[in-house]
Design goal:
Number of helices: 12
Largest sheet: 5 strands, parallel
CATH topology of the largest domain: Rossmann fold
Structural class: alpha/beta
Strand order of the largest sheet: 5-2-1-6-7
Order of helices and strands: EHEHEEEEHEHEEHEHHHHHHH
CATH class of the largest domain: Alpha Beta
Number of strands: 10
Oligomer: single chain
Helix content: 40-55%
């Protein structure tokens, strides 16, 4: 099976490289400048933040060269989705399976509108950053892809993809509850992003501050209430994972949203916090802390726009 990753950033580059290591036929659809960089320096990955860099020779194509693939994995940031859909048109044939690994949920509407029932639900869990030198730096060992049919049924195509991914050095989970899984990751990202951005630092520093833990718990409660109002109440294990991660004393944990914010880069405020606040309004859920975090990030985004 031929697998095409749309994007060779911190998520697509990492998982694509791990599949390449397992012998899978992988290509990357990228913009011309990224292709030039890949051709000149390879796909660069460091297994630890300051560790040695491994450079892989990879097959990359641009929109004018792309052809149909068996599996097309969307691994771009949400603001880039519209352009990615247009660029990938020729890669999605009648029997192609589309696997999105974007944050939040709203990308599903855009993808299913264009590609119909070829679209699966999916999510990736990993800690990576793409630095200024285009090196993907892993922040930890965790790496997994969870996916499944949006209606929860078993299918030949999902079983085939699971078998294809299984030899790679990441955890593959074929889930009959992928929509719920995606909601639970969304709530986690919204709560953790709000905690680190609004309260201004890693989890351990927030917990150590007077009233910090109580504020974290209030943010978690708001995010969980939105999911419940939308008909996707979090399972107990998911709530426990969120609490364990963002209430741990001394923890250095931060989020990609916080890291982007702290380094003056654009964030995914709208697909993560903005879209969740839209759900809150629809279902009448009060979310003052989540809204405050979103406003802080929107001010940040406006400032970035002014200097572009």
């Amino acid at each position: 099976m031929r697998v095409l990753f749309i994007g060779a950033g911190s998520v697509g580059g990492l998982f694509g490289s791990l599949l390449l290591d397992a012998g899978v036929d992988v290509s990357f659809l990228v913009r011309p400048n990224r292709r030039t960089q890949l051709q000149q320096a390879g796909l660069a990955i460091a297994s630890v933040p300051d560790g040695p860099v491994r450079r892989l020779a990879v097959r990359s194509v641009t929109r004018d060269e792309v052809s149909s693939s068996d599996v097309v994995v969307f691994a771009v940031r949400s603001p880039e989705l519209g352009a990615a859909i247009e660029d990938s048109q020729a890669s999605v044939g009648p029997t192609t399976t589309v696997l999105p690994l974007l944050n939040g949920m709203r990308h599903l509407a855009s993808l299913t509108e264009r590609f119909g029932n070829r679209v699966l639900g999916g999510l990736a869990v990993t800690g990576t950053v793409l630095d200024a030198d285009h090196i993907i730096r892993r922040l930890g060992n965790e790496a997994s892809i969870t996916f499944g049919e949006l209606d929860g049924r078993s299918s030949v195509r999902t079983n085939d993809i699971a078998a294809l991914f299984k030899p790679a050095a990441f955890r593959t989970v074929l889930s009959p509850t992928i929509t719920q899984d995606m909601w639970e990751k969304w709530v986690f990202m919204a709560a953790a992003g709000a905690v680190t951005v609004l309260l201004g630092g890693p989890v351990g520093e927030v917990v150590a501050a007077t009233d910090g833990l109580g504020t974290i718990e209030a943010i978690i409660a708001e995010a969980c209430a939105v999911a419940e109002g939308a008909g996707h109440p979090l399972r107990a294990a998911a709530v426990d994972r969120i609490r364990m991660t963002i209430t741990q004393p001394g923890s250095p944990f931060t989020t990609s949203m916080y890291r982007d914010f702290a380094t003056g880069r654009s964030t995914e405020v709208e697909p993560i916090l903005g879209a969740l606040l839209n759900e809150a309004r629809i279902h009448g859920v009060d979310t003052p802390l989540l809204a405050s975090a979103a406003v802080r990030l929107r001010v940040h985004e406006a400032a970035l726009e002014m200097v572009r």
